[in-house]
Amino acid sequence: MALTHLQIKELLDENRYHKCDGFGEDKVCVKIASIADLPSRFGKFQVVAFWNNRDGKEHAAFVHGDACFAENVPVRLHSECLTGDAIGSLRCDCRDQLEAALGALGKMENGILLYLRQEGRGIGFINKIRAYGLQDHGYDTVEANIALGFRDDERDYAVAAHMLQSLKVKSIRLMTNNPRKLAGLTALGIKITDRISLIIPPNPYNEFYLHTKATKSGHLLDTEGKEHLLEQTDRPVVAGMSNEQAVEIQEV
Ligand SMILES: [Zn+2]
Ligand SMILES: [Zn+2]
User: Fold this and answer.
1) Distance from first CA to last CA of the chain, Å, rounded?
2) Interval between CA 92 and ligand 2 midpoint (Å)
3) Which ligand has an atom closest to residue 85 CA?
4) What's the number of domains the chain is made of?
5) Candidates 155, 156, 234, 235; catalytic one
6) In which residue ranges of the chain is pLDDT below 50?
């Protein structure tokens, strides 16, 4: 069962007057600003819009089923990627990851996708496109990645942890292929009871993961030797991948 009108009203009232010391180094505080039903092609969701005290980025939670006030809730963190999520860019596989996560959560009894508005690893859209431009002009992925900046994981986890607390989630099962990602949220007081792998269906566009060759610098080559920038913090396991390949991806 989704949030009732009464529960929504109570959450909104409580958030209106919410004050805390903030999460993480940046002392990030978020407040639930509004909640509405959101039927989608992935199932019935409710969308929760968040305000935060650090910038104008309006983060979102997509909640399926009875997930608030619940234990062992499947949770996926997704970072915004305009070119991938909305346009279907093949320079990354963000949309594959997003669709696989929503599809999986929509079929589960309950679950939450936190959509973090941190385009281009938190450095913004302009800089992300700048990094793409560098690649187009022959810079390699390492140089382009430096231009793209490195994801501020700590900041992400602080926002996510506070969002989960605002939603009254008691404990989670984190949907990630990277066991190391659990530590960031745990450090911020989130109880993680399990990890769920994110497995994306194979298609012509993510085939490069199936044939992946993880290198020292952590970038991935497709079958034509073209390099892909990573925009999400963890790497998807594609259905059909061997165990060795899956482990290789997780360990880089
Ligand atoms: Zn707060
Ligand atoms: Zn992307």
Assistant:
1) 39
2) 5
3) 2
4) 1
5) 155
6) 216-217
Asked if the structure places residue 167 within a domain, the reply is yes
Tell whether 234 is covered by a domain.
no
156 SS3 class:
helix
Q: Catalytic residue at 156?
A: no
Q: Which helix (H) or strand (E) holds 62?
A: strand 60-64
Instruction: Report if residue 174 sits inside a domain.
Output: yes
Structure-block tokens of residue 92: 């990354």
The Cα–Cα gap between 227 and 129 comes to: 15
User: Residue 5, exposed/middle/buried by CB under 10 A (0-12, 13-18, 19+)?
Assistant: exposed
Catalytic annotation present for 153: yes
211 neighbors 202 (Cβ within 8 angstroms): no
* CATH classification of the domain holding 116: 3.40.50.10990
Give 55-74 pLDDT, tens digit per residue: 889 999 999 999 999 999 99
Expressed as residue numbers, the domain containing 47 is: 5-198
What's the CA gap between 149 and 235, in Å, rounded? 18
What is the pairing mode between strands 220-221 and 199-200? unpaired
Q: What is the pTM of this model?
A: 0.91
Q: Which candidate in 54, 117, 130, 153 is catalytic?
A: 153
HSE value, Cβ hemisphere, 13 Å, CA-based, for 144: 23
Rounded to 5 degrees, φ, ψ at 39 are -65, 140
Query: Tokens 């073209």, residue?
Result: 226
Within a domain: 181: yes
